[in-house]
Every structure is written in C-alpha cells, then in structure tokens.
Amino acid sequence: MNTRTIYLAGGCFWGLQKYFDQFRGVLSTEVGYANGPDQAPTYQAVCRDSGHAETVRVEYDPDALSLTALLEDYFRVIDPLSVNRQGHDQGIQYRTGIYYTDPAQLPEIEAVYRAQEAKAGRKLAVELLPLQNFFTAEEYHQKYLDKNPGGYCHIPDRMLHLAEAEGR
Q1: Which residues of the chain have pLDDT under 70?
Q2: Out of 3.40.190.10, 3.30.43.10, 3.30.1060.10, 1.10.287.1040, which CATH number does the structure's domain 4-162 have?
Q3: Helices H / strands E in the chain, number of each
Q4: Buried-most residue among 9, 37, 50, 168 (CB within 10 A)?
C-alpha cells in the first residue's frame, strides 16, 4: 500500500483526530506535540506554553485520498486567520500549522495554501514548515473523543460526521 504522512495542527488535537479518522484513505492518526523545543514535553508543560503545538500525525493512502483533498478538509474545520486560538481554546499550543517531512509534498501543500490565502483575501496565520520534531502525547489523549464521547471539541459535531453525510 502507498502511504504518506502529514502533521496538522488545528487547535485542540482531540477533535482534529476524530475529524480525520472518519475519512476513507486515512490509515491512522496519532496525537502529539510538534515543533517546540527538542525535549519531550508533558501535557502540563504544553499547557504552560512549552512552545509545542497540539498536532495530529495523519498517515494516509494518496491513492484513496489526495493530499490536496486532505488539506482542503483541514481548512474546513480551522480558522486560518486566527493566531494561537481555535474555538474557545487559546494559547501557543493551539496554533495552526501544516508540518511536512517529505519535501516532495511541498508543491501540493503550497498550491492549497495559496488557494486558501486567495479565498481569505489576506495572509494566513497557518504555519507552513518542515516538521522539526513530534512527540507522541500521553495515551489518555489518543482517540480521546472515542473514549469520552461527551468531551469538549471546538469542531462542530456535524463536521465529525461529514464523511457519512457526504457519502465518503
């Protein structure tokens, strides 16, 4: 199977993970902390401004789901103009970002990014950077909203059932 990986920060990682898990072509997701200092942080350190972003590692099959489609879905659930805030969540760990490890992905990422910028009519607050580091979050954060169905999520519930509604 053909697999690729992209790292996406979009506010609280609980909802973003659940959101991406619904799509055909997403093979696996894992939540963690990215692009902060090189030391592995705890959740408490991240909440005290360690500099890491709550991020979802998305492994996908590009033959079933293109990176363009995946990124367009990402932009459907974030406010790309908001700095260090998504929904009610505020702080540097809630910043938005697209982090890549394969430079071959960059032209496709940049094309989507430019299209979103044109749509917004101004510069986006979404970081577009190579992945510096990624530290897996504690186990209780993995698939959090599956374990805690009533848990808080800044992403509207209807978006967590988008694939079903759209027949994807």
Answers
A1: none
A2: 3.30.1060.10
A3: 6, 8
A4: 9
Rounded Cα distance between 30 and 86, Å, is: 20
Task: Tell me how far apart the alpha carbons of residues 12 and 154 are, in angstroms, rounded to a whole number.
Answer: 7
Distance CA 59, CA 14 (A): 16
Whole-angstrom distance, CA of residue 115 vs CA of residue 24: 24
Take residue 2 and report the two structure tokens written for it.
Answer: 């053909």
CB 39 within 8 A of CB 88: no
Q: In angstroms, rounded to a whole number, what is the distance separating the alpha carbons of residues 152 and 34?
A: 22
CA pair distance 110, 92, nearest whole angstrom: 23
- H or E element, residue 106: helix 106-120
Active site residues: 12
Over residues 58-84, the pLDDT tens digits come to: 999 999 999 999 999 999 999 999 999
Strands, E assignment, 2-136: 4-10, 26-34, 53-60, 85-86, 89-90, 96-100, 127-130, 134-136
Q: Please give the Cα distance from 134 to 36 (Å, whole number).
A: 8
d(CA 102, CA 82): 26
Instruction: State how far the Cα of 161 lies from the Cα of 77, in Å rounded to an integer.
Output: 12
